[in-house]
Amino acid sequence: MQLTPTFLALSLAISSAFAAPSSLHQRALCSSAVKITQSENPFATRKLHANAKYRAEVEAAAAAITDASLKTKALQIADIGSFLWLDTISTIPTFEGYLNQTDCSEIFGVVIYDLPGRDCAAKASNGELPTGSLARYKTEYIDPIAKIIKANPNIAIAAVIEPDSLPNLVTNDDLATCQNAASEYRDGVAYALKTLNLPNVAMYVDAGHGGWLGWNDNLAPGAAELASAYKAAGSPAGVHGVSSNVAGWNAWIKNPGEFENTPDGKYNKAQDEERYVENFGAALATAGMPNHFIVDTGRNAVQGLRLEWGDWCNVNGAGFGRRPTAETGNALADAFVWVKPGGESDGTSDSSATRYDSFCGKEDAFKPSPEAGAWHQKYFEMLLKNANLDGTGTPTSSVPPTGTATSSSAPSSTTSSSAGTAAHYGQCGGTGWTGPTKCESPYTCTVVSAPYYSQCL
Ligand SMILES: *[C@@H]1O[C@H](CO)[C@@H](O)[C@H](O)[C@H]1NC(C)=O
């Protein structure tokens, strides 16, 4: 599955990290150390922080939109909280500058995502660390992150731990890549949970989504896998439960569920995320693990778009979903959150790219799409047009505004212009790239994910 190798153009990230965003009110850090208790919902009294990295991406995207009402909508997104992905060792030095802008009334969201052999069942988000480098994961990734958090004890933090990793061990153990990664996933997650078990941190171990560990036969093995990592870490008090639907598309409530009436539907009781919370939550309790959830609603406003439940890549026709809130109406669901920063691509649709995953070429995937983590302006604009930030109504299907996903009606490309120069956000270099290498003025070709992807920024 996808996710965000956010090799964000560092110039953009760093310059924006320390500038006070104009729309922020006067920052007020907590005057004493934050202590989150395990019985507390850390989101009940704290708002998810809108980090400066995503804010800068969204503000740049808004600046590129000419339609006035769409531009206004885009700027609203800049104020919505989301998670920061620390998905390479090189992103760690940017962490503290984002973290220390967090107000005392807020909680900072961070995603821990750099296990050796990461993304063992897909290609788009393969990690920087090969299997066999667990020691580096511990000393060069987890330890420095823990050090930064310890230096900022007055800031509340919610951490999503290693999306997809343990779920992949449950359902993709037929793949050699996942078999080879398994022991380091287990030890790595346990080490992360133990090391990040700090008073100001609430941790949620990733649990996939209802269409993954929600199958009746996966509930108990899935819960056992997660609980085993939790226990191996010494049952840390900082673990509140699990995250679900990270970078996903499932509705919170949808009855019947999107795939409920398919022939296989009867083998899965978790047909929407609320039913996943109930069913997997019960399995976690049985397995002896805290079972509160945070649920990613960042891109789930529109349902009925996927051909198959497992389709994960840049689903065409999607819209921004419920804005982050602790008002979920479900006692086990601590919050709806935006974990995946909407507008960052899930993976490239270029079938000749090294990290091409065939899911990104499926009929229901938006094309063309850039490498995972790269900014995807057309996709962002689509999410905006289809947004349902307040969860009003219960949309069951929608006609994608940019046409269907077939190549003949694919959205007009921003990737290159006929003049041989790439437009703003267009690709301008990277492994196997044969298109334009120059950018339209005033943009410059910037390495976003070496060696795979350069973009006009
Ligand atoms: C925030 O973090 C940055 C980067 O580590 C540092 O330069 C800056 O002094 C910090 N600011 C505050 C208020 O702690």
TrEMBL record:
SUPFAM superfamilies: Cellulose-binding domain, Glycosyl hydrolases family 6, cellulases. The active site is at D119, D164 (proton donor), D346 (proton acceptor). InterPro entries: Beta_cellobiohydrolase (IPR016288), Beta_cellobiohydrolase_sf (IPR036434), CBD (IPR000254), CBD_sf (IPR035971), Glyco_hydro_6_CS (IPR001524). Its EC number is 3.2.1.-. Pfam families: CBM_1, Glyco_hydro_6. GO terms for cellular component: extracellular region. It is an enzyme of class 3 (hydrolase). One of its GO terms (molecular function) is hydrolase activity, hydrolyzing O-glycosyl compounds. It comes from the Eukaryota. Keywords: Carbohydrate metabolism, Cellulose degradation, Glycosidase, Hydrolase, Polysaccharide degradation, Signal. Substrate binds at W85, D87, H209, W212, W312, K340, E344. SMART domains: fCBD. Residues 420-457 form the CBM1 domain. Residues 391-421 are annotated as: Disordered. GO terms for biological process: cellulose catabolic process. Residues 1-19 form the signal peptide. Belongs to the glycosyl hydrolase family 6. This is Glucanase.
